Amino acid sequence: MTEWFTTQKTIVMDRRKLLAGLAAGSVFAVSGCTTNPVTGRSQLIMVSEGQLAQLSASSWTQIKGKERLSRDPAYTGRVKRVAPRIVNAAGLGNKPWEFAVFDSDQINAFAMPGGKIGVYTGILDVMENDDQLATVLGHEVGHITGRHGQERYSQSMLAGVGMQTASVALASNDVAFSNELAAILGAGISFGVILPYARKHEYEADRVGLQYMARAGYDPHQSVRFWQNMMAKNQGRQKPPEFMSTHPSDSNRIAQLQKAIREMGA
Ligand SMILES: [Zn+2]
Questions:
Q1: For the chain, how many structural domains are there in total?
Q2: How close is the Cα of 12 to the center of ligand 1, in Å?
Q3: Is the model's pLDDT at 68 over the cut of 70?
Q4: CA of 183 to the centre of ligand 1 (A)
Q5: pLDDT digits 0-9 by tens, 92-135
Q6: In the chain, at which end, N or C, are there fewer CB atoms within 10 A of the end residue's CB?
Q7: What's the gap between Cα 207 and its chain centre?
Q8: How far is the centre of ligand 1, averaged over its atoms, from the C-alpha of 18 (Å)?
Q9: Half-sphere exposure of 157 (CA within 13 A, CB side)
Q10: Are 113 and 207 in the same domain?
């Protein structure tokens, strides 16, 4: 919990005053612009990973209540095999993780702050090998270490969306408020999972994910093959697969991946 949320009057500041405070440098004495150690990029971060994890916890519970867990070891075994290698490669092996495989045709996968990873059997059917699963898990964990959720959330706070209530709920450090807060932000189950990230975040997660998969001993070139297969899956469909709707892909994304692989010397 940062001082900003608990002690300063900014909780009830209007947006104009907040921006003035920002300009004067008085508001974000504790939380604010920080350099991300993984990406080296400076980010505006007004919410901790722990706070975001609290908010995401209800989404995770909702998803688990809605979807059927797979008991098929052909699927669960793959995730159990690959996911720990990726989180270890990300230096997060000491954190508690929960991996779930959902028995559903949905072509989807996600990772949430607080260490929740969900993979649908639909997307596992698209993946030709463990390297391609490592591509997706590396990318998703890259969103977490890239602090993309925290950044997006901070931007929406700065935009004045539910500013007052958001601050009070976070200051209370009370999980009971998190549902309320998520509803105010129009997020609910979408929060951190379904809303598409900005393109900049997608490319960054791709780059970070490539590092993780390579470090874990997987072949980064398989990421290109995976996204090509996903693009082919998308063709002729009325509605894109879920993962494609939150991860729009085109030849530019593939080109960026290939460039990143070359730069890695892989
Ligand atoms: Zn993504």
A1: 2
A2: 34
A3: yes
A4: 23
A5: 999 889 999 999 999 999 888 888 889 999 999 999 999 999 99
A6: C
A7: 14
A8: 31
A9: 27
A10: yes
